[in-house]
Amino acid sequence: MLQDKIFKLKGKVQHYAWGGYDYIPQWLGIANAEHIPYAEYWMGAHPSAPSVIVTQNGALSLNQLVHDHHAEFIGEKVFEQFGELPYLFKILDVKDMLSIQVHPTKAAAAAGFEAEEAAGIKLDSAFRNYKDRNHKPEVMIALSEFWLLHGFREKDALKNVLQTVPEFQPLVSIYGDGNYKTLSEHGMYMQQEEVNAMLVPLIKREIQRKQNGELTKNDPGWWVSKLYEGKEEWGNIDRGVFSIYFFNIVEVHPGEAVFQGAGVPHAYLEGQNVELMANSDNVLRGGLTPKHVDVGELLKHTTFEAIVPNVMKGEQKENGETNYPCPVPDFGISKIELHENGSYQNTANSLEIFVVIDGTMSIKGMVNNLSVSKGEVAVILAGETYHISTDSHVLSYKAFVP
Fold it and tell me: Where is Zn(2+) annotated to bind (predicted)?
């Protein structure tokens, strides 16, 4: 078995079409000569894209090491509870809006997975909803000014939208006194001709208003314009446009966080973040995407109630640590920010992953030491006591099992 307890980790880049071209390559210190989108950088042991750790025996799959040596890597207690490393850590660069989506509960994911297995839908099929049996709660912390849609607007705020947008006035009676479910189902199941007739004039007006400088990113019309302006052909209008008006538009500043549990409809709009989630790839989509959309399944698992977005500033602890409490057992996340002569000390209860956003830090363990800089990632094995310091400044995020 490996003697060292602290290693560098190499993640996997995902080149999804909505990703930006510059942020992740610049952070990693590599060129993007082909000008392809760098959307996500995965750090973890998800079987579809496991990270590797750099050892004296070469690069080894973290997924395989967790499987073969779970006591040393994630700890016996974590393995007994989850049977795997229960989280997946990511850096995201969102250039174009992501799909309107909802994540299922653990019970719903298990049932959905078994049903699709029984139906013979292949795991890699474009029509598959459930890739695993796990739930997918997630937390994001902004690395830049970040914008997202998160849950339904409060009752009166949504009613005001329906009353003041001329095209939506026929929806006022359908919504009634706050019937989110009926309103959502009506929008999602409308005939496409009706969707086009309702939304085309609205989109044209919003594009004109954006060009006139009448809109800001707090306005739904700004994002609707971003979707359609400059396109020669609009084709059938995406009914995900309704959600941009029905959901809360949330601005998150660097170092602030938003947690998203099962059933909360959401979509990332723009910006860079660090994201931590349960080790799952289960996403139910309802629009704004070329990927598989299953409206019935999405609506079945959506929580139809108003949400006041909770933007967390984090809880300051000593030693430069800021913790962002999440109401799940699968993962925890902290910001570790140190200035000259600052230090942080801890004993890992589980496998811990540190991603360095800026600066350089030295990690001193009981067995070995490591220096980790911007664009690099360190992994610390369960049970290891370690000490972190910096000569100048370091900003990093730590994923762990609470």
Answer: 101, 103, 138, 266
DSSP state letter for 66: H
The C-alpha atoms of residue 338 and residue 377 are separated, in whole angstroms, by 16
136 with 259: CB under 8 angstroms?
no
* Residue reference for tokens 């993962």: 331
Query: CA separation (Å) from 168 to 34, 158, 172, 176?
Result: 44, 11, 7, 13
CA dist., res. 38 & res. 32, Å (int): 9
Report whether 215 contacts 209 (CB < 8 A).
yes
Per-residue pLDDT tens over the stretch 147-194: 999 999 999 999 999 999 999 999 999 999 999 999 999 999 999 999
Would you please indicate which residues are annotated as catalytic (active-site) residues? 285
**Euclidean distance between the first and final Cα of the chain, in Å?**
26
Look at residues 346, 342, 347 and name the one whose alpha carbon lies nearest to residue 361: 342
pLDDT-derived band at 290 (thresholds 50, 70, 90) equals confident
Average of per-residue pLDDT across 96-116: 94
User: Scanning the structure block, which residue is given the tokens 């209008």?
Assistant: 237
Numbered residues of the known binding site for Zn(2+): 101, 103, 138, 266
**Quick one: which of 362, 339, 348 has its CA closest to 398?**
348
The DSSP output letter for 41 is: E
- Cite the annotated binding site by residue number: 101, 103, 138, 266
Cα separation, 220 vs 137, in Å, equals 26
Q: Which two tokens stand for residue 11?
A: 């993640």
Secondary structure of residue 167 in the 3-state scheme: helix
Domain boundaries, the chain: 158-243
pLDDT by residue (tens digit) across 297-321? 999 999 999 999 999 999 999 899 9
Rounded Cα distance, 283 and 300, in Å: 13
